[in-house]
Amino acid sequence: MKIGNIILGKNPLFLAPMEDITDPSFRMVCKMNGADFMYTEFVSSDGLIRDGHKSVRKLNIYDFERPIGIQLYGHLIESMVEAALIAEEAKPELIDINFGCPVKKIANRGAGAGMLRNITLLIEMTEAIVKSVRLPVTVKTRLGWDDDNKNIVEISERLQDIGIQALTIHGRTRAQLYKGNADWTLIGAVKNNPRMKIPVIGNGDIDGPIRAKEMFDKYGVDGIMIGRATVGRPWIFREIRHYLNTCELLPEPSVNEKADLAILHLDKSLEYKEGKRAIFEMRRHFSNYFKGLPNFKETRLKLLTAVEVEDIRKIINEIRETWGDFRTDDKTSIYNV
Length: 337
What we know:
Blueprint: E1 2-3, E2 6-7, E3 13-15, H1 24-32, E4 38-39, E5 43-44, H2 45-49, H3 53-57, E6 68-73, H4 77-89, E7 94-99, H5 104-107, H6 119-132, E8 137-142, H7 152-161, E9 166-170, H8 185-191, E10 200-203, H9 209-219, E11 223-226, H10 236-246, H11 255-272, H12 277-289, H13 297-305, H14 309-323
């Protein structure tokens, strides 16, 4: 697969951009585990052009995570073009436009998936950005606004015609939010449309190796993007890649291995973030790192309420001491942190 001049090889795996999740620390552990392409957290165009601290901070890119894209969202063409030019200065490999975020406060302003209610503006905005930047421009979107407006096949053709270099499609409408099952049939319809020449990346409900291979095989997508299933489970990329290559399932990492990775993730989060934010935003990961351990409820509560770094380290080391080499099966792990 190739996006512009970016060569990603066969069946690349993408880490989805997620607010307060895909920060540099999480991108690091996902890259270590085999993610082929990653994105920053999505960036508000308004925040970026106003020099908002939170938005500007998201542009920090490190060599270890390349190739990487910066994803932007907004509802005004002029602001989005200006933000794209600012983002280009951070030297990502590409600029991605978010036409898929279903969150009410974003969509109701006409940004994110809200753009699916104004396709003319969506196309005009994308074309303006493509013409303004030197980097490849890609788009992430959904099947449409609701069940009565699943117009992704038409939108895809129009986006390709104005020069985007790749398209990621989440298999739900905006009205669905994250409910129900992702419908990959329309993703497949876009990919197999004879008019489409650019790479098509599928997204939605990829929760492990078997599902990932099924979507590649059944719908012929060029790549797969994984979002929620990566949270506290960065090794999912390694598991999927191994299965795609061998049709064999890797065992889960042992508790010792997960503990090492969790502490590394915490240390990097503390390095890249200020104050207690690192701890608060790590909680959703901690909840999943050790999910499945017997009688974990009480320990999980401790992890989710601890506010001091040393207390968190102590809890993780207690988990390690109790469970050590425990894993979901007894195959020999090849996982190395």
